[in-house]
């Protein structure tokens, strides 16, 4: 999606004129606005019908001082999408139209004399543009302030309010409403109250004279009638554009609102700087100018306030500018900012349910979402969904689940025994204190007064592309066990993911041996008790974008599962009650960052064989497509059974937030997950697979839709080139993630990392 | 709000016919549907225009087998709200209309022969009913499945989609779309694709003949033309109602969708029972029948699936039934379920922003909400807002804030020192493990493996009405200190709240003495360190609706604040840097349950003098008016300074969820909080104050709007009556909360409690 500034200037006021319906008087009212404005520009992006009757000519005729322009003119008097079909070669695309409007407005903004610009739409708010896209969507990237022309006719109250609501759903601000007076239907009385309650001024204007030529005489042209029409219109315009008509007051209202909007943008940073306590932010030395004031967002871009660099030039420099959302807003975005379908979905669930209590309640959004995710997560162990609000609470729930199951089976007394967790160094599972305790002590979490790291964290081999070669780099302990071998090269990333093949190689045995020795030391020698194995599958996001050798995670799970005596040596080992039961330890996958198509798999578990898929999974972030907080913890039947083996209420899982499984979040999540599944099914991302096709023997095959399971939207040759740059230590890419580790010549042991993310909405916009 | 079942029967299919605009052919299309249906009922709730031309007569004439009825007929051919104004005495209220429709449909459902009922609206979706309420809102309590008649005319694509979106925002399900064909504008082609993508069938029908009488001959009546019109219409109806027209297929589609909906309702409980892990629920022995299947919600009521009791009778018994939301969905609801303004607000913020990252970002919803709450919380100490997702995370943040501040000032090493919190017995602050640790050990939290209660919890005096008398009941330790005095009676609840007066009474000194002795024992004798005082102001909700004597909380805060040596005896006591600085300990108010008008105060802090208002406050639940998870932690400047005294990043407050300050939540919260403030300002609740007016000397005065600060929507005489019932041990009420403690004759020391809540949306519906 092309990115440009949402048009906003200090001096030039720009409005988009939308109509509640067709034939409600948009052009007449816009002509009046042009006449009354000190100096206006009139822009008609798309016009249909004979050019001799085009709206820009009408404006030019009756408001001669106005600069007028029409971008695309189709002669047929039909909807632009039909006209454009007939002339497909002339038909502009959505991006072209929007970009052309932007260019013209930018030029007008540089004209000192120009005070107002009005961009007139065609038909109603949802009348299709040439490509068939509804105008309300087509023009949304500009998000111009709206002047809405209401419908004065019978039924006009309804069409006006419905049009207004459709604009709201797309995040437009309606700055004023204009409507013709009608003494019989009196729509303006009703609408005046309606909009006043919403702080939107409405102005009712005298109706223009009936046109003789069209209405009464049909198609037979009559020069005389035409002349009389023209004269009547001229008199009308003169009368209604007089100061007493209220149009002057309306323009003043608009100016006040324009100034207020800019004033808010100017002061928001200092207000925020005084009143907001920012997450993960050191406020010491923080200046208001460091804050990004976000006016709106669309697709992959924010529209942010631009501090004027030079005062003198400020009136014609854009108040807003686009900023690329490089981290996909903390890795939440799947379908792009300001997605109208998700917005409407949120409204539907809010209108149908609001929030309804989930204690023993069942509603369609929660039940359908649970079924959808359980079905497609491709892990036969997972049968239950527990809802909560964010990744951190989903992991709190996961920890409660796993510890209960293990303490129960191993007959540990959690009140007196210190039960810990197993994990990987650099892991991170959230900011609530219980989940912080699942991560090893570090500079950061040790500052939290109640933090007590409760676990053991393995160092692990990492996947990197180094100087064009896919490599697994061993940590010291493993290199030592491997007789000083520090790394292993592979011909492709797919080879590294060929877990079942590699398991029986020397490295599979090496990993297993290392893990077994470590556990024996911890449990038998040190007497420690571990109640869960917690892993972020494949990539540790918050820990600095570390790509774990999948074979290591596989061997860790397999070793724990096959050797329960490593966890509790003093008990007879119960055989698993079924192939879906947990053995050794409950395995938790924290898929908050890595789940739901981050790597173009529904779940990263599917990079692993069934035997090493988890007993418990936490999902969040991408779950709602980037709109709202919602999370789920999936669990296996025997984890669930650990809480329901007795009828005692206090044995239940004691967790549940007020807005558990809120219908708005569940409904939007179901829409978003379904949409991403459709994109996968329809091959929306196939173009990105090409550079990864010949990635490895036995895994990838070439045909119409290449069957590649390990790939990234970042092409392999880009990685190769990057990895050969002198300043780069290593790179890797998987799914949507690209990580570049720079050499730090000052402290070579501590490479800087630069995680990068493509389009936040690439899942759609690149599809 | 009257409550009744949302009409849904197994046999009778009921649809509401909405038009995209007026004059789109609703009546003709409904007549066709009636003709094709085996046996239909036609209901026109409100009709305007001459009764000789009324829609029900038209239907009767051309579909003679149809049962027709019109509820309210106004002769003027204008919008019902204008017609009703002229005949105010005849004009029905919204509730009456809806109730009448419900009654007729219920009667028809009992008629074995009846297969379909069509309720035809007037004009467009938002055309006002007699009271002026938009029809889409007026009829929403019924939430009938919708047949939408699209607009075939120029502009009709836009008006149809806008109407559809307005219906969605109110939680309606559109089950099919019908539209007249128009070869020139071809709206049906576009709309067919549009609705197919949304899984909604669309049927295009031949247009009826032009009416000679109205269109061509103006008002001059002509019997001949009338006759010809009638004959043409009759021929049209015959032709279009033939099986080949597609109407039969459409009815089949509708039947399939009707069956599917009921099928989903029937199976949802068993699906949920298999796949959902419910919060705070013991699943052992839980049957699917124990689950409440919620189809929709509105105001204070859910519409829930009714398991048919007797098979034989099931076709005419209602599939849905209303259930009162007695706990206001875990105390979240402020403005009622399915509130269309909040739904639209959610959509606006979603359309304008989606979610945008809040790390150093500033957006209007978050900044405005922060300012609004800081300003009106009436606590000069609070200047900063930290956003998170729910009450539990807000309290995790509060604990992190307070412990940092106290450890820093008292130079404790949190890594080695065990720093605890002070609180009250029975308190509860959330389900994440860090906040669980803030509550005393109990049957419940001790089952959580990582729970370690870290604190000391005071027993406290409770407020109750016992046998008609407002009483403060002391716990054993206090009664002992009070020389065996177990309780104190007051002439009114307001007297109990006269904190400044009572402070200097014997009981103020008694409380202070008791608190001081306890702290000296804990700190000096036992050597314990306390880093925060955490209180739920006035009422401990989750702990069993315990009403704390406000004087006790006041004295606790005052004692801690004035005697820092009680907290850390070994350090020289730094004087407070300003009157807004914390001394002794940071005081945290957990207002998650009690805040934002639960007690008809913006904040329960305002029941206390400024001197005992908190340094840190957590808000959630009612914050978004009952729609979405969002929470905030408010803090004072010197709490904030504890994290920004050094520029080190790791000294910052290390907390922040992915959806921190999500714009949808902040925007909806700002709307909801503003609405509640307006209701307070406009005296929306004044009627409830009356029974509390003469509640105490010096506090309450009687005038036009009684200035009562301590009151409840539950009248005092109800409390008196309840408290005198033999089975009742005690009662109390404050704000929206009524608590009744029953005598338990089996174990008299353990009274059962029965917390009760009034209308979940009383804030609006009783206003």
TrEMBL record, chains A, B:
A GO molecular function held by the record: adenosylmethionine-8-amino-7-oxononanoate transaminase activity
Keywords, in A-Z order: Aminotransferase, Pyridoxal phosphate, Transferase
Keyword Acetylation: no
Signal sequence, start to end: none
InterPro entries xref list: Aminotrans_3, DTB_synth_BioD, P-loop_NTPase, PyrdxlP-dep_Trfase, PyrdxlP-dep_Trfase_major, PyrdxlP-dep_Trfase_small
A GO cellular component annotation in the UniProt record: mitochondrion
Database matches in Pfam families: AAA_26, Aminotran_3
Annotated GO biological process: biotin biosynthetic process
Protein name: Pyridoxal phosphate-dependent transferase
Annotated source species: Pseudomassariella vexata
Lineage of origin: Eukaryota, Fungi, Dikarya, Ascomycota, Pezizomycotina
